[in-house]
Amino acid sequence: MPNVQLVWQQGGSLKVLDFGRRNTRVVLAMALAVAAGLLLAFGAGTAQLDSGRVEVARLAEAQQRFMDAEARLAEQEDRVRAYAARLSRMQAHIIRLDALGRQLTDMAGLDPSDFSFDRPPPQGGRAPLKSDLTPALDSLGNSLGSLSRTIQARDTEISQLAQLLLNRQLAQQVRPDGHPVLSGYISSFFGRRTDPFTGHAMVHKGIDYAGREGSAIVAVADGVVAVSRYFGGFGNFVEINHGQGYVTRYAHNQKNVVRVGDRVERGQTIALLGSTGRATGPNLHFEVLRDGKVVDPMAFISDGPR
Predict the structure, then answer these.
(1) Which residue has the higher pLDDT, 160 or 293?
(2) Element at 35 (helix H, strand E)
(3) How many beta carbons lie within 10 A of that of residue 123, not counting itself?
(4) How many Cα atoms are found within 13 Å in the side-chain-facing hemisphere of 191?
(5) Which of 224, 222, 255 is nearest to 240 (CA)?
């Protein structure tokens, strides 16, 4: 191995340091050791840098999971608030429906056991399985949906009950009932009789009420005036359509006090008793029609005073 010399300049003259063969080996060994140390340090630094990068990535991943969990929790809290508000509205609706149902049941005179508004409907089913919060919220949402459908069914039940009661009331209001005069007496019944003008047998299609001229003639049910005019042998004539197939007729009036299209109520004065048209004296000719056919008015007349 050749000698290693270190040459440098100092103070304008060259300086030479001769290591010799042995010293050369020492210098080379030291250089190699320094180089190896530098390589090891560099490798350790690189490893630490890679490890730091891994830790940063893990930290970022954990932070993202935390943010996702916070978002899910916020979403679940929003769902709980929405469910609570919905449940509150449903409870208020149920209270109103129950109160209305009991009132309608009483008004309709129905058996309370047919519409049990004071107790919840019987239900059953197996116990729910344990689950975390999200499935539990989903189950709560399904329960609220089921409750909403129950309320809709109860609402339909209430509507049907109200319609039943309304139809019953309407039927009572529009069905002819009672006498069409406040005073007087029946002078001729429905059916075959001798005509007072010709003496021939004929069919009398109504009931005649004899009374004081100018006394009140009243509607026997709610309805709408379909005819109010002078009408041949009927004289001054009023016809009222009550709906549901019922029509009543009032003839020989001294004066009609209602006009076509007027809405009248049971007991309202519609004319004054007279003898216009084909009549032998002050009387009211009263007819009842059901589905276009003349029927005996006695089937609709109560036993009250005439």
Answers:
(1) 293
(2) helix 20-108
(3) 7
(4) 3
(5) 224
Tell me how far the alpha carbon of residue 37 is from its chain's centroid: 84
Helix (H) / strand (E) element for 154: namely: helix 133-174
DSSP result, 270-284: EEEEB--SS-SSSEE
DSSP-assigned letter for residue 115? S
Q: Do the beta carbons of residue 300 and residue 220 sit within 8 Å?
A: yes
Return the pLDDT at 306: 45
Task: Report the C-alpha gap between 30 and 40 in whole angstroms.
Answer: 15
Angle (CA) 100-106-110 rounded to 5° is 115
pTM: 0.49
CA 194 to chain centre: 62
- Measured distance CA(80)–CA(292) in Å, rounded: 63
pLDDT at 238: 97
Residue 270 corresponds to which tokens in the numbers above? Answer: 């519609």
Angle (CA) 242-246-247 rounded to 5° is: 75
Q: CA–CA distance from 15 to each of 12, 28, 49, 108 (Å)?
A: 10, 21, 44, 130
Tens-digit pLDDT profile for residues 128-160: 555 555 556 666 666 667 667 767 766 666 666
Per DSSP, what are the bridge partners of residue 203? 192
Q: What are phi and psi of 187, to 5 degrees?
A: -100, -15
pLDDT tens for 228-254 read 999 999 999 999 998 888 899 999 999
Could you identify the residue written with the tokens 């609706």?
93
The pair of structure tokens assigned to 282 is 């002050």
Does the pLDDT value for residue 277 go beyond 90? yes
